[in-house]
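Lab channel / #folding
Pinned by the channel admin:
"Please post every new chain as: sequence first, then the C-alpha coordinates as a reply. Keep commentary short and put observations after the output so the thread stays searchable."

First post following the new format, from NK:
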Amino acid sequence: MAVLAPSSTTPGPAIRPDLTYNHAMSQITLVLPFALPVPEFAPDLVRALQAPALAALLARSA
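Reply from TO:
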Protein backbone atom coordinates (compact mmCIF):
# COMPACT_ATOMS: atom_id res chain seq x y z
CA MET A 1 0.00 0.00 0.00
CA ALA A 2 1.38 3.40 -0.96
CA VAL A 3 1.29 6.25 1.51
CA LEU A 4 1.24 9.79 0.19
CA ALA A 5 3.58 12.19 1.93
CA PRO A 6 2.00 15.53 2.82
CA SER A 7 2.94 18.45 0.63
CA SER A 8 5.14 21.21 1.99
CA THR A 9 2.06 23.42 2.46
CA THR A 10 0.00 20.76 4.25
CA PRO A 11 1.13 20.05 7.82
CA GLY A 12 0.27 16.79 9.46
CA PRO A 13 0.84 13.07 9.08
CA ALA A 14 1.03 11.12 5.85
CA ILE A 15 -2.32 10.50 4.16
CA ARG A 16 -3.41 6.94 3.36
CA PRO A 17 -5.44 7.18 0.13
CA ASP A 18 -7.34 3.97 0.88
CA LEU A 19 -8.81 5.51 4.06
CA THR A 20 -9.82 8.92 2.76
CA TYR A 21 -13.10 9.97 1.16
CA ASN A 22 -11.47 12.88 -0.66
CA HIS A 23 -7.76 12.36 -1.29
CA ALA A 24 -7.08 16.11 -1.44
CA MET A 25 -8.43 16.68 2.08
CA SER A 26 -6.08 15.93 4.95
CA GLN A 27 -8.60 16.92 7.64
CA ILE A 28 -12.35 16.67 7.92
CA THR A 29 -14.53 18.78 10.18
CA LEU A 30 -17.54 16.80 11.32
CA VAL A 31 -20.53 18.68 12.70
CA LEU A 32 -22.99 16.59 14.67
CA PRO A 33 -26.46 18.07 15.10
CA PHE A 34 -28.49 17.47 18.25
CA ALA A 35 -31.14 15.79 16.11
CA LEU A 36 -31.20 14.64 12.51
CA PRO A 37 -33.47 16.64 10.22
CA VAL A 38 -36.27 14.95 8.34
CA PRO A 39 -35.31 13.40 4.97
CA GLU A 40 -37.34 16.02 3.10
CA PHE A 41 -34.59 18.53 3.94
CA ALA A 42 -31.89 16.49 2.14
CA PRO A 43 -32.07 18.60 -1.09
CA ASP A 44 -31.74 21.75 1.00
CA LEU A 45 -28.64 20.32 2.68
CA VAL A 46 -27.05 19.69 -0.70
CA ARG A 47 -27.57 23.30 -1.73
CA ALA A 48 -26.60 24.88 1.60
CA LEU A 49 -23.72 22.67 2.71
CA GLN A 50 -22.40 21.33 -0.57
CA ALA A 51 -22.46 17.93 1.13
CA PRO A 52 -24.09 15.37 -1.15
CA ALA A 53 -22.80 12.42 0.91
CA LEU A 54 -24.41 13.82 4.08
CA ALA A 55 -27.67 14.51 2.27
CA ALA A 56 -27.71 10.98 0.86
CA LEU A 57 -27.06 9.52 4.31
CA LEU A 58 -29.87 11.54 5.84
CA ALA A 59 -32.25 10.58 3.04
CA ARG A 60 -31.58 6.87 3.63
CA SER A 61 -31.95 7.08 7.41
CA ALA A 62 -35.74 7.39 7.30
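NK: DSSP finds two helices and no strands in the chain.
TO: also worth noting, Residues 31-60 form one domain.
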